[in-house]
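User: For a teaching handout, I'd like to show students what a predicted protein-ligand complex looks like in token form. I'll give you the sequence and the SMILES for magnesium ion. Please answer with just the structure.
Assistant: Understood, here is the input followed by the structure.
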Amino acid sequence: MADPAGAPCVEVVDLHKRFGALEVLRGVSFAVDRGSVVSIIGASGSGKSTLLRCINYLEQPTSGEVRIDGEPIGIERRADGSERRRSMREIGRFRRDLGMVFQQFNLWPHLTVLGNVVEAPIRVRGLPRRQAMELARACLERVQLSEKSSEYPARLSGGQQQRVAIARALAMQPKVMLFDEATSSLDPELTGEVLEVMRGLAVDGTTMIVVTHEMGFAREVSDRVIFLHGGLIEEEGPPAQVFGTPRSERCRQFLAKLLH
Amino acid sequence: MSENLRQMLDLGLFWEYRSILLAGLAFNFYVFAASASAAIVLGFLAALARVNPLRPLRWLGAVHVETFRNAPDYVMLVWVHFVMPLLIGQAIGMRVTFAPFVSAVIALGLVYSGYLAETFRTGMQAVPRGQIEAARACGMGGVLVMRRIILPQAVRMMLPEAMNNFVSLFKATTIVSLITVPDLMYRVQMVTQQEMRPLPLYTGAALTYFVLIWAVAALARAGSERWRRKIWA
Ligand SMILES: Nc1ncnc2c1ncn2[C@@H]1O[C@H](COP(=O)(O)OP(=O)(O)OP(=O)(O)O)[C@@H](O)[C@H]1O
Ligand SMILES: [Mg+2]
């Protein structure tokens, strides 16, 4: 049996994902300790988004496991050693602990900013309305958008929308935050405010898995960096090593191309 | 001015019979309200079936939509009123008849559930996938996603088209006189038989329907537009 106290916050074990004939992930394993930041880098199409989406089961892994505090999301191991696939409802319960931030923000346009942030705490976690409101206000404060709480998303800039999306994920008080290229669809002058918020979260000790093309940010904020190539982890280590003295030729080429 | 034209424009006769005729108009509203409710419920269920991952359900939804959307109102009305009771009677071995009002509501409810199902489906499918994934990522289950994320947006998106469906449905209520539901048209025919002056009566009915439908539809459109615009700036 897993021991929640000693287990890493997130553990990915031999993860495979196949779309028809295309095998996107071919056996990925890594662990994320509580309070640490892991960045995932790699070329377009290398499977970064797929990996992140498998972690919260937006994509069902073909095989392998994802464990949160030692507990596998997709299957239940009974004491007698038998296994059972979990239902969507049970998987939903794990998802509460995994905050996800998408490249396209994906805010709900019919709800105000505050409405977007309180929705899941009330409906999913069942918090009383007043308590949820307080929590939501605190989260909006954290992304510096308190003054926009009664605005509709369509009236906000991209950077503001993404910060609302971060607040929405934070409001579930997740164990880990997943970021999938949170700044990639933003105009360059708006990426700064979002990265600033993410940096703040990292400093506060939030456990984070960050898929990013912002190498400066990855280098500065991460505890560890993973370079994904062809569905496998090609290089992995502290940022100084991955960015400074990568062992893998492919990783070196990838970084060189970005810097050119 | 010809005698005919003068007669046509002289609505005094229509006015004389106003209380009987307006009571008929009330029947148009009853039929409309009842069949619109039936069409909304059935249409929503059919739309749900059509966006379902289960193939047999999707197929069933498609059959529902294609059958009823392609059935002419009039044919459906006659079929439901005269044929359906016979079939049901055969099946349960008892004589069955439908009251005209009931037949009208079943027939129009079915036909317009076909149109509304497509309107619903288009609205539901217009909600971007990413928003649904965001909801799932927050731990929401299918029912919550439908109720809190998809439907509120789908309803706003489908409103203009739904409004058209409802206007058509209201217009279709004017054929229920064919199976003797005592609506405005039915009463116009009755009065005509007594008075032998069809022109002012039919003109009065046409004007009444036109003004009513036009005014209500315009009001409903204006109201829904303001509501929609708040989100999609
Ligand atoms: N639902 C899907 N069905 C089929 N193929 C898919 C699906 N999702 C992703 N893929 C394929 O899997 C591969 C990896 O995609 P993925 O989005 O994970 O890459 P990525 O590393 O996130 O790329 P990018 O940097 O462009 O976001 C791509 O070849 C993509 O076409
Ligand atoms: Mg991606």
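For the handout, you might add this sentence: Chain B touches chain A through 23 residues (CB under 8 Å).
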